[in-house]
């Protein structure tokens, strides 16, 4: 994994390139490269996972009368199949890197190469003779790609901070951006970069920039299809897809590890990876995070019925892995607030981000690449809101049923500019309208497909942002096998009664993977990513909020009502701020992130 950036039809010099490249170093600590031609400058920073010697970038190719140059952030999981096709078409290769396969595939098939790729990626190809730039992002949105149009030119980068490093690009926040932060955050509208005039290429989209014009199109989306497989065939297909995705994503020339929470998804990945590693005579490393005194303070609830440590021990003993614990204190979380905000370039999921950042920093001391269980819940229907009839029947984003509560935070001047209910409702309804559903679908099946698309377009993206930014901040590549697009495509058409087998969340996945895990883990009720329950954490973030309240010039007061912030110190909410984990302490931490972000990025509010 890496960082990429580009400057098209805009002034550039060595100082500009160096300043932008410096922002990319954490994502790519193993090497740096630059390509410069008239009208185009490309930057790359590399984290070498496959073919450390032969995969350097920017990578160039002469083919069929055109001169190509590629900068690429990602990993292909069908590299060898594509290499064979390309060899048969007359291509030759100097390395075994997937980067070279991506470049040759684009030279051979152009934009149609995207349909052949199974992987996670954001890349740019410059065609020197045509003076044409092609940009693309993977189907599921695992790898980021931001851009801005400036004075007849284009800037793009893996992260917003790199764009902001270009001279004259100002970090501006208007009313729409503020609404993103306070009415939707830490989620954001697909394509929004929150900052004024900064956007993101959406998942499953590509773009062409030529002669100062940018054209964006969607090359992939979740499409409904008639499901003709029997129950038995569906179970067999799911088992194959999940197992194949995990095994494909193990490709690496450096040591790898597995996140292990003791939940169904990470345990499945750990079990299959461990079996394969042991077969190869290699050591299997698993990693878990916990919090000081969590066994003392943990409070079971609707969203988090039990803690993880018991199940982690079961898995570690069953697999015989080399297991590593990271145990965090409340102070560790508070200390990571600033870096987590820098990593995301935006306020994020509060201590859910902070803990992952600290966890990834520790993992990076042992391995350079790891596999994690994100996205199974979105695809297989594992979240509580899929199975709660009350929430399912409501309009609005099921993970944030609190628009009125959020709108109450808005500064009065902003409330005059933004109708909170209308802002959120339009984005929700737009996603519903875009959901592809076959005619004649039952009301329940229609609603479940709408829920899947809502989760794919919104909630999944927030989690993928979190995983990418928190891991890459420490130069750790994290792969997410459940984000294999083949799984998403197949499962979208599978009827809800199959997914809800025996009335269990992810019942189909449990049945498909029977025998892979200890029964107690296979049947464990879903529990989300762990958070601290230590009262000291609430005390720490509350004290920091009081300091902000004591400073009349705190920048957050330009966005948020003082009375609303004061109310957080005694608040008890029915609904979490976002998802399952952002209760009152996390909401306070989110507001602390907003204030820090405004200061650190010197954001101008317009």
Q: Quick gist of this model?
A:
The chain has 606 residues and is α/β, with parallel strands linked by helices. The radius of gyration is 23 Å and the shape is globular.
Description:
With 606 residues, this protein is of the alpha/beta class. Helix content is 42%, strand content 17%. The strands form four sheets. The chain has a six-stranded antiparallel beta sheet with strand order 2-3-1-9-8-11. A six-stranded antiparallel beta sheet has the order 4-5-6-7-12-13, covered by helices on one side. Helix 11 (337-344) crosses helix 26 (584-600).
**Strand residues, percent:** 15-25%
The main β sheet shows up as: 6 strands, antiparallel
Which consecutive residue ranges, at least 5 long each, have pLDDT under 50? Answer: none
The strand line-up of the biggest sheet is 2-3-1-9-8-11
Radius of gyration: 23 Å
Q: Which percent bin holds the helix content?
A: 40-55%
Structural class: alpha/beta
Number of helices: 26
Q: What is the CA-CA span between the terminal residues?
A: 36 Å
Average pLDDT, rounded to a whole number, is 94
Shape: globular
**Strand elements, count:** 19
């Amino acid at each position: 994994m890496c960082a990429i950036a580009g400057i098209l039809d805009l002034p550039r010099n060595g100082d500009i390139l160096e300043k932008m490249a410096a922002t990319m170093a954490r994502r790519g600590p193993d090497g740096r490269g630059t390509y410069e031609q008239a009208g185009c400058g490309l930057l790359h920073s590399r984290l070498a996972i496959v073919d450390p010697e032969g995969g350097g970038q920017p990578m160039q190719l002469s083919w069929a009368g055109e001169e190509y140059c590629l900068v690429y952030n990602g990993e292909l999981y069908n590299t060898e199949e594509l290499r064979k096709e390309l060899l048969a078409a007359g291509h030759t290769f100097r390395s075994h890197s997937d980067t070279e396969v991506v470049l040759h595939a684009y030279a051979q098939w152009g934009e149609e190469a995207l349909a052949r790729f199974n992987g996670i990626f954001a890349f740019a190809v410059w065609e020197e003779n045509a003076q044409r730039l092609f940009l693309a992002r993977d189907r599921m949105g695992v790898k980021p790609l931001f851009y801005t149009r400036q004075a007849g030119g284009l800037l793009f980068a893996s992260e917003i901070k790199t764009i902001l490093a270009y001279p004259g690009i100002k970090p501006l926040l208007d009313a729409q951006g503020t609404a993103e932060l306070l009415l939707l955050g830490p989620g954001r509208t697909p394509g929004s970069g929150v900052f004024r005039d900064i956007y993101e290429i959406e998942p499953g989209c590509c773009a062409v920039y030529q002669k100062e014009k940018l054209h964006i199109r969607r090359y992939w989306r979740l499409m409904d299809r008639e499901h003709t497989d029997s129950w038995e065939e569906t179970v067999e297909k799911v088992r194959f897809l999940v197992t194949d995705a995990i095994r494909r994503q193990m490709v690496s020339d450096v040591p790898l590890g597995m996140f292990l929470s003791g939940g169904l998804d990470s345990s499945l990945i750990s079990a299959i990876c461990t079996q394969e590693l042991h077969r190869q005579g290699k050591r299997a490393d698993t990693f878990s995070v916990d919090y000081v005194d969590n066994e003392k303070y943990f409070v079971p609830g609707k969203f988090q019925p039990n803690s993880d440590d018991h199940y982690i021990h079961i898995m570690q003993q069953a697999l015989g892995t080399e297991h590593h614990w990271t145990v965090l204190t409340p102070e560790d979380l508070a200390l990571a607030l600033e870096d987590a905000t820098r990593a995301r370039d935006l306020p994020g999921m509060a201590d859910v981000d902070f803990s992952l950042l600290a966890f990834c920093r520790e993992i990076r001391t042992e391995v350079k690449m790891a596999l994690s269980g994100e996205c199974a819940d979105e695809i297989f229907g594992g979240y509580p809101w899929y199975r709660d009839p009350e929430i399912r029947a409501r309009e609005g984003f099921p993970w944030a049923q609190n628009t009125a509560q959020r709108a109450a935070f808005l500064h009065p001047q902003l409330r005059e500019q933004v109708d909170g209910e209308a802002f959120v409702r339009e984005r929700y309804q737009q996603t519903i309208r875009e959901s592809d559903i076959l005619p004649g679908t039952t009301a329940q099946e229609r609603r479940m497909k709408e829920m899947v698309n809502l989760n794919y377009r919104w909630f999944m993206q927030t989690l993928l942002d979190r995983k990418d930014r928190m891991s890459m901040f420490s130069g750790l590549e994290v792969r997410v096998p459940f984000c294999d697009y083949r799984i998403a495509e197949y499962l979208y058409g599978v009827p809800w009664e199959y997914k809800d087998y025996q009335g269990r969340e992810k019942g189909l996945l449990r049945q498909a993977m029977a025998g892979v895990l200890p029964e107690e883990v296979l049947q464990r009720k879903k529990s989300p990513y762990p958070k601290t329950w230590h009262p000291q954490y609430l005390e720490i973030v509350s004290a920091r909020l009081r300091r902000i309240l004591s400073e009349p010039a705190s920048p957050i007061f330009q966005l948020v009502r003082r009375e609303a912030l004061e109310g957080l110190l005694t608040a008890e909410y029915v609904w979490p701020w976002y998802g399952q984990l952002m209760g009152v302490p996390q909401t306070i931490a989110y507001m602390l992130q907003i204030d820090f972000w405004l200061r650190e990025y010197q954001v101008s509010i317009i």
